[in-house]
Amino acid sequence: MTITDESLSYFSISFGLVLIDKELPYDLYINSSTHAKRERFVCITRKNSSVSTEELHTFRDKYYQLYIREDQRDLYLKSLTLVENSDDSEKASVIKDSAIKYLQTIFERDHEFSNELLDETIEGCKDSVESMVDVIQDYDILEVQKLIVDLSFHDFYTYDHSINVAMYSISIMKALKPEASRHDLVMAGMGGLLHDLGKVKIPTSIINNPGKLSDEDFGIIKKHPNYGLELLNEHHCEHAEINFDIIKRVVGEHHENYNGTGYPNQLEGTDISVFARITAIADFYDAITTKRSYHEVLSTEDALEVMSRSVGRKIDPRIFEVFRKNVNVMLDGKSHQELPDSFDPCQPQNVLPLAKAAPKIQRSDFINKDKDDFGKVKADSNKKKKAS
Ligand SMILES: [Fe+2]
Ligand SMILES: [Fe+2]
Hints:
Elements: E1 10-13, E2 28-31, E3 41-45, H1 53-62, E4 66-69, H2 73-79, H3 88-107, H4 115-136, H5 141-150, H6 157-176, H7 182-194, H8 204-207, H9 215-221, H10 224-234, H11 244-253, H12 274-289, H13 300-308, H14 317-327, E5 337-338, E6 355-356, H15 379-387
Antiparallel strand pairs: 1-4, 2-3, 5-6
């Protein structure tokens, strides 16, 4: 049976990512119109039936493109994990396109926020992050970086940056806590994806400005963590599998610096949520290593060298150490440069504000030995205190 419905929207998919010899969780369509400007979608395979390799070859020869209905996008995303023998970068590019679609829904300006809209979008973001976890959970940070390099980049800094930060955050969480549950990994990714949610309330002319911002504009930018929190508090979202407290803490705390000089609340050390401290490292690394049109990127070695100079000031020493070991590159960068504590990785930059580095401070000077990475007081530290 064939159906057409012009009121629905459809998106094209790659032949290589169709499930073979398994029950399809979605309907497959083709566009049967011969007019370039008019589309007529016809269902060729119904949900719950299956497609063989031979049938797929026939489709490929006969039809230019396969489509899925927009309202089945989540089912398609979930099916990617079952697709065998396909390239991870092909899957990642589908995941990225879907994540961008949800981020666009949040960041586009011509709508009012409603509980339903935010709920739906966050649900969609979760589907994208779940698929990211499926693809990259066994990747180390350099493998994630390679994947990011392979993905195309778009014009709007916030979208690409948010998706990259989500992927790095998942990878850092896994490195920091190898026994992390899937929920922890998904929440690390969700925090990364939504960390700049508050920018929706900042004029695009400011958030996409890669030049030096005036003090006034920078003052406006600094409001985005609280704007993001307000949005999440005003619209009461609930979802059994999403911990909104974690998202709120990442949204509100990702610009806090480890030494208490960040904003908006000058939180310090492990008082900053571990998810926000992970996001801050992911944020920093993406901003200085991802090639964009506006600035030259640092090599992995130089990026680690520059970041190491912000240890204990901007970023958590212990998480950075895990990060550095995971990247598995020795600190032998030649740049001898650093970025100021006020460096804002969430902002596009024409030129990185690198300056000659001051002598290094020992990493151990910053570590609170009584608390673990998650801010919990260590059992033996209590014992020691009681004994003394
Ligand atoms: Fe930010
Ligand atoms: Fe950011």
